[in-house]
Amino acid sequence: MAEKKEFKAGVYALFAGVAVAAILVVITIFAFTTRYTAFDPEKVAQAYVDTIVQTGDGYNAYKNTLVSKNAKFGDFIRNAYMKPYVNDGDDVKQAEFVGTGSEQEAAALDHVYTTMYAYYVELLNTYGLDDYDAVFSNYFAKLSEVRKDVYGDEYMDTDYMFGAFESNVSTYGKSLTGTQRLFASDDKTIIQEQETGIYQTMFGTEQEVDVDVLGEDGKKSTVKENQLVYKFKTTVKECTPLSDDEVKAYVDSYAERISPVAQSGEAKADAFGLEDRETEKKILFFTKKEKDNKKSDMISAFENLDCSDSIGAVSKCVVEVTLDGSDEVIATQEVFVVQIGNSWYVDDTNVDTSALYLAK
Fold this sequence. Notes:
Layout: H1 12-37, H2 41-55, H3 58-61, H4 73-82, H5 103-126, H6 132-151, H7 158-177, E1 182-183, E2 190-192, H8 198-203, E3 205-214, E4 220-229, E5 232-241, H9 244-262, H10 265-272, E6 276-283, E7 286-293, H11 294-303, E8 313-323, E9 329-340, E10 343-346
Antiparallel strand pairs: 1-2, 3-4, 5-8, 6-7, 8-9, 9-10
């Protein structure tokens, strides 16, 4: 696994700006492509496999699955796994350095992200993201402990939790694909160094490419350099609709798989001691009632996973992964996609994606 470099506080603000812009672009593209692919079982199967194999990103692949049918994937994670650790009331004080943009704050954030990255990789190796329940349950419990240890406060909100987890997902992907040197808008501040990824070493061939370097004049310039280059290609080799009898049998087996999970919310909420509460908050001359339904939200998050009453059709798809320009198959993935209304989803309860994590 590629080693994570020491955080540089001096370029933190610049890097954050670039990262936010990049995320907004990705979200826009994803929203468009997801709406387009959802109506085609082959495209859904391909998008699911491609998301995982390209960067080991089983996290975002769930946006193509039944987990995202009745709620946004982020809302599901928030209600099912994050809320037990949320402690962000007005009376909860954060560490004094939070929000200062200081080197101390940057160092604390990097310490948390680095510690949690090692744990994220451990969870991937132990469970794999097919078992999202184990990964999310363990990850956020650990993050709560690490935050308290590093920051010395009791504060926790969902933005912080998503920030840590998604940073780890991104870092893991970059360790596989490698990174290119990136400059800030001033064309002289390096915000990301160039590193060779595991997939480059495993599958790459040496080719001459354009790279950005810091020139003798202290500014960015572009030069030719030999690097290891590879490109994965995912292809749906077959997508076979199941017969009516087969669909009925499949839905019955799906119901058996999902029922224990869908019914687990109340026991999980009780284990955390969650309750639904209503509090009053005074604002000037008015009293506002606020509801905090952590228990009901967790129960509903798991109950809504059960889509057995809505499945109208099922197809079995086989997706092959090859190196672009080669016929050599480096991975084969079987997925079942189900139709609900006009949209198709991967059945995440009936898949083993371990073959797509090629670095293992």
